[in-house]
Design brief:
Strand content of chain A: 35-45%
Radius of gyration of chain A: 13 Å
Order of helices and strands of chain A: EEEEEEEEE
Oligomer: heterodimer
Distance between the termini of chain A: 38 Å
Helix content of chain A: under 10%
Distance between the termini of chain B: 31 Å
Largest sheet of chain B: 7 strands, mixed
Number of helices of chain A: 0
Strand content of chain B: over 45%
Order of helices and strands of chain B: EEEEEEEEEEE
Number of strands of chain A: 9
Largest interface: A-B, 27 and 29 residues
Strand order of the largest sheet of chain A: 1-9-8-3-4
Structural class of chain B: mainly beta
Radius of gyration of chain B: 13 Å
Chain lengths: ~110, ~110
Amino acid sequence: DAKTTQPNSMESNEEEPVHLPCNHSTISGTDYIHWYRQLPSQGPEYVIHGLTSNVNNRMASLAIAEDRKSSTLILHRATLRDAAVYYCILRDYSNSGYALNFGKGTSLLVTP
Amino acid sequence: DSGVTQTPKHLITATGQRVTLRCSPRSGDLSVYWYQQSLDQGLQFLIQYYNGEERAKGNILERFSAQQFPDLHSELNLSSLELGDSALYFCASSADEGVSYEQYFGPGTRLTVT
């Protein structure tokens, strides 16, 4: 499986934009880039995904580099509820089928 | 609320015992995944079922087994429990298979083995 690299932790002020980076230099042409987050004491939650083009949804935006070797999850206005561990995951069919391969993620702290 | 339900929420049992965790996927979702989350190993994939058939296995111990029933709910059976099996067990469902289908996670079952 292609690997991703994320910072262990990041901090943001409430109501400020947050840019969460993810490096995936060994990404293959068929890998989708998925982001999930896990709020404290909850199960993981789908955030967004994309293949080549930038994507927007009600939760966030995903900016994908032209060479696809990196991506950035953008939370436009962080709230206290956005404090969570954010996982950047590359998905392709593998020995684990279509399962999600979670790494350590980035722990986002949002301060008032 | 993801629409995925898991029971029980908490389970405390002794070493050597057997337990069954239950998962009801979102209405209409055909695929069910089981994951284990422990402090030292993080979130790890255990096993996947699709429309009643086993599709993929991850780091699942031989003491663990699962099945998906005709009504699409799934059960994860853990036997000969050891202290190291203490963890959060999550079930996730998706509408279909494929890399573009997002997974919806349940609230988890916290298993404590004493």
